[in-house]
User: Fold this.
Amino acid sequence: MSTEQPDALQPILTKLAAARTRLIMERPFLGALVMHLPLKPGGDWCTTTGTDAQAFYFNPAFIENLNLAQTQFVLAHEAMHCAMGHPHRRNHRVKRRWDVACDHAVNLILIEEGMKPPLHGILADQNFMTLSAEEIYPLIPEDTPEESFDQHLFDSDNEAGASPDDSQRQDNPDAGESGGRGLEGQSEAEEKEGSGSQASQKPNELSPSEREELAEQWKNRLTAAAQAARQAGKLSQSMMRWVDGLLAPSLPWRALLARFFAVNQRDDYSWRRPSRREGDALLPRLSSEGIEVVAAIDTSGSIGDDELRQFVSELDALKGQVRARVTLLACDDHIAENAPWEFEPWDTMQLPAGIAGGGGTDFRPVFDWVEHENRSPNMLVYFTDAEGDFPKIPPNYPVIWLVKGKGAVPWGERVQLN
Assistant:
């Protein structure tokens, strides 16, 4: 459709508005996100729906064949792409495979929320449940026959993802909302204009700086929507876990671990009398007693040997910097027979050979061992997938969980391995 008369479009716009209103009432979190996407009829290029993270584009004939629940799904689907940051996370990845991975990630979340998809055979492989688009992408075959049902207008359609030059943007200033007009959302008058009689032209690609600005706006929108829905008691547990994971710190785990070590380092000023050779004055001096660290590794089989070696290697580098004495434990559902392994700050720390494991996962034996040995560590670091039995009561020392996967922890500081 290249042109649509206002009278022909009005029932479709009314249907979309009704679905959006229903989302706001029944699912305020998703409704708040959808409100940031003005409704715009697409041109011949739009066969179903699509988004460029600035508007919701639709084919009137496609929307006409949907019921109200399915219309809610496609609205939420486009808003979730934006909220999950898919427009700026592709990087070097092949666009087709990335689009497929993004659709699996979004659809699985919405279906888990009880929403009704518009098509049979929609991309929603249960094997990808709880995985991010980045984690799904390598599992998608290079020659996959799968296709996303909507159009992701995040960047150019070529595989290299090259940006169009600015002259093209200036030649067509009315295409999209990116021609230097600012990215804050549209007014109601602008939305009505975009929903009028003339079908929207296919929007041009955003520049890198515009994508960054838009990504930051969507992150703020996600935070505000989640906070409001949480306070109203209308944010489900599964959605809450997803939001918390998306908004969690994204610093590399090595940097976060180094920060925790530095914070716990016992540096203080010493007023002890200096040697006579140092002079008569009593001046404060910085002294360090080092720190005691208990490091536990999950040997239940979910963590590979290479990952364990990287973890131990990183501990080895850090303990020398802060003069830490490390006690290493290995545990699946019980402490390994040859444990513990003790490493002084000057010792070279290596992964012990022949660590047995592969049983279930129980974190309690490690904390029981610390208590039984009457240890008082400055911190305990646990390398795990967080799928197991936790102690009901947290200990009185800091605990850092280095988590591979999406497992949640009931207490302590959780650091995502990325």
